[in-house]
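Handoff note, outgoing to incoming analyst
You'll be picking up this chain. Sequence as last confirmed:
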Amino acid sequence: MGTIDDGRNRQTATQYVYLIREKIMGTIPASVTDTAKNRILAMAAKTEGAIGITLSIAQGKGCGGNEYRWGGFVTEAPAGHEAIVVNDAFAIYVPMIDSFNMFGMTIDFGADEKEQKVASESFKFINPNVASTCGCGASVTFKEQPKAP
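Most recent structure output, in case you need it:
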């Protein structure tokens, strides 16, 4: 991968893209349904001073190759993360490296139509960047991202 010299720093093209995105965007264009917001905020209420929760993509996990992973609640915004805004005081923080695969995603909470069990409610990730899911729906394969020229 090439480097970019902006007169102040010499960086890889990837580092430069992340730097520009952080300065311009700061948030991921994704959404959270009211049902998911209510569930997240109810869980967060148990952690004093929580302003967010982390969400990442664990690579090499499950038969689909990737799994969404909730982390812990945080009391300050973690460095190197972008935010999916839940409300004015709370966000879901995603590592920048994972944010490309979460563009346009909707996070929902509820029962799975396939499951006919009591207490089968869970978070659902409706993601246009997913190429396929495994049979149980716990892991995903993402569409290939375009390569830089």
